[in-house]
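Case study 2.
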Amino acid sequence: MNDNAMSIPHLIMNASTVVQLVMLLLLVGSILSWVVIFQRSIALRNAKQEYNQFEESFGQVST
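Prediction:
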């Protein structure tokens, strides 16, 4: 058996069109999911920093 016949690129190129489309959709979905995860992470980090700044300034005003 040829070792190249079981390589990932070889299997993808020899798959049917439907299988290739499904793999492409899964790849796009995965990339979009990671984009959302990173965006939410950044937004939460910024919100936490703003909250900490607010607490510091509010504490200084009230005392």
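The mean pLDDT is 91.
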